[in-house]
């Protein structure tokens, strides 16, 4: 059944149009241009016609027509504008902006029906003639033809279910760069023919765009690894110049209920799970992936607002002298307390922020909040203890960290030695030269630098000799495993010894038990942080601890 | 014909033409008629006319015109059409008396 989108703010008019049309067509409704755009995003491929009112709140018909001009895909759907009978001006304007035709209010039901019917059937006939059937380079079906035929296949066999397999050549742009476009094209042709012939029972195959191929197959419950490695090997056996790696995304059990467009997108999106992974080259689109995606989407959509609405809170986790048990400072940690989702563990959002760059904005917020808080404590005559803040590796590339932290210590009139900066060890692995430069500037300015997560990455002893750091922060694994693991124990001793020789202070993270604290102290570790002493606490609680310290 | 439809016919509405548009579905037509009666555009139109905010008044009148026309409520359709025309032409001379006519026609509908 052809599908019509009715865009009209008046419920009565929508009712009338629906009554006229819903026996012959599938009807979807939108009450303004914006809603219609949202629907088009997922549905444009399924739509045969749009009936568009001109005067509507939020987004009127004219705006809608101008906006969709930028979307060639959307422009393939014919639009009939509904105008009132007294305004030729509206009709001319709508036609000039790309509307296919118009109908007038009050609706004449025969005119409405015929006009819609004629336009839809004209488009369908023309579409068959106009659709470029084949991809010129590979000879596979073109994307548009694939979409159309796949949708038809699924619609005519609603009893069947299908799988969509999407393959993507890893680093194809590099192949083009290294070997030139001719070789690149050879590889694409080779891949196309292999995909087409190797996936024997494929119903349809296409090249979706540059180096992404998609096949529609009858549903199969199990795919073993061999299936995919064989296909990749087969392609490589045809290539003389180079070897390629293919990543596969599979969307299973697709039916006519999910549009082919969405199904292909899902198969394509799940590839990101295995991109760059050398041990596994295929992934299935499943519920957990969908949930992760939605979760990430939700976080990305809300992060800026959350920062504005003060949903991010800074907590402070005390650091303690292992010998005396006395608090000597704290680490500032960010928490997200959302009124809807409640308390969100940092592990859930920090990695995402590191990926999308928002971490820098959040870090700046934490730095400022920490400085403001220290000023407040100093003003109230509380003991002056340093607080460390995290500097993400992206900050070091994206921000002028020395300028920002200097500005903050000036603004809040703090001695620089009170603001400790924690830089994670792994930052050094990627761009050592940048890290060395920035840390040396910060150190010369008088900031105390802590090397965070020491011992987690590919620690290099070089790093210790090259980088201007003051404090070594041992990853929590050292505190938690050393009693059970003899070798780790030896490494810990060695690190503590080395630190002592180099005049570095060592702080151990993740101390959870008295036994751990005792052993660390006996081994010569000076400072500790962890739940055994205190969890991260609010600023008021931290102030209370400072007050207690003052009393002592 | 139901009581409402008879009354509407007496009022001057072209019920037969409207029913044709509704594919003969009298009860859907009646539902839509009651939706029209409660259409907030009437109240908004009154408000904007009073404030002489003719731009907004035009939007309300224009929206009403489309719906009233589709329901073939001829007398109200005529008065609203002439208001839409005047507002479009920015001819505000007789505008209050035209609006008054709409109020009268709308009131008669409410009385039904």
From TrEMBL, chain A:
PROSITE patterns: EAL, GGDEF, RESPONSE_REGULATORY
InterPro entries: CheY-like_superfamily (IPR011006), Cyclic-di-GMP_PDE-like (IPR050706), EAL_dom (IPR001633), EAL_sf (IPR035919), GGDEF_dom (IPR000160), Nucleotide_cyclase (IPR029787), Rev_trsase/Diguanyl_cyclase (IPR043128), Sig_transdc_resp-reg_receiver (IPR001789)
SUPFAM superfamilies tied to this protein: CheY-like, EAL domain-like, Nucleotide cyclase
SMART domains to which the protein is assigned, alphabetical: EAL (SM00052), GGDEF (SM00267), REC (SM00448)
Cross-referenced NCBIfam families: GGDEF
PANTHER family, per database record: CYCLIC DI-GMP PHOSPHODIESTERASE PDEF (PTHR33121), SIGNALING PROTEIN YKOW (PTHR33121:SF70)
Protein name according to UniProt: Stage 0 sporulation protein A homolog
Biological source species: Aequitasia blattaphilus
Lineage: Bacteria, Bacillati, Bacillota, Clostridia, Lachnospirales
Automatic annotation (TrEMBL), chain B:
InterPro entries linked: HPT_dom_sf (IPR036641)
Name of this chain's protein: Hpt domain-containing protein
Source species of the chain: Aequitasia blattaphilus
Organism lineage: Bacteria, Bacillati, Bacillota, Clostridia, Lachnospirales
